[in-house]
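dude i think i finally got it to work??
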Amino acid sequence: MKIKLYFIICAVAAVMVQSCNDGIPEKLEFKQFRNVFFSAAGTVRNVTLASQRDTSFVFGNISYGGTTDYEQGKVVAEILADPSLVEAYNVENQTEYELLPANAFAFDNTQLQIENGRNYSKAAKLFVAPQELVAEKPYMLPVTVNLISAPEGMNLNEDRKTAYWIFTYTFSPPQDQDIEKNKWTIDSHHDTWSVGYEPEKAIDGDPNTPWHTGLGGAYPYWFIIDFHKTLKVSGIIFQNRLPANVDVKNFPLRVKWELSEDKVTWQTILEDNALSNTLDEQQLPCTTVLSGQYLKFSVYEGWIGAPYTYVGEMSIY
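look at this
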């Protein structure tokens, strides 16, 4: 009796095991979850940029789930910055972020592909140029994914398609710098009218002794100051030529200041297409705060169109 019962139990167990095996397919399918999503989406990421050097980040890739069968075919998507999302985010969260400037970032590849046989793409890399940003000011970069092509039945996960990154440039050289203006020299310049009006006169501390350009109208007129050490430049102190009774008041109108560490790579720190013709000293904050050894000043046009111009005095803060 015991032997018969043993064989009955074994037979029932064998049937149950076979039944279970028949119910487990080799490849699982949950089609309702077979959607493409962006790995960078889901949270707001805050990034602090503490260096002036261009910085790269692994930004994210696309993937899909809902199946263990990855022979689905190729999936192609693109990632795009969406400026409209900044305003929508600010309204919803009562913030005041500005869009990360277009010249401050780039992707190594904006088209992501999931090859047949895989369920994820290579990650996109993001490059950010901190020198294009205003220090201590947060910028937002919202990036969203759009499907270009996908297998039938595969859609985009609308809740996992957008990433929000916030960048803040915090690089700040020491504040207790001594500019030692008495050690500044003119490295090079474009043109001078005559002896006694050299560009050195624009940094001698006396606005009554101006730099006067040549008379030929060969704009832009320019000169380069050598600080002889690296200085942080937050703003420009500018003084038009004195006295006020100069015959032709062709003060600089369109101007630009650039900064460099090596005289090879220049970064614009301030550009003004309508510089004031006031005789008062002007303090002009830089749009981009940087550090460097060489400061280049260029004049592209004067106030009344004369073929020459002049500068009384210039410094930095």
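The longest helix spans residues 2-22.
im so relieved honestly
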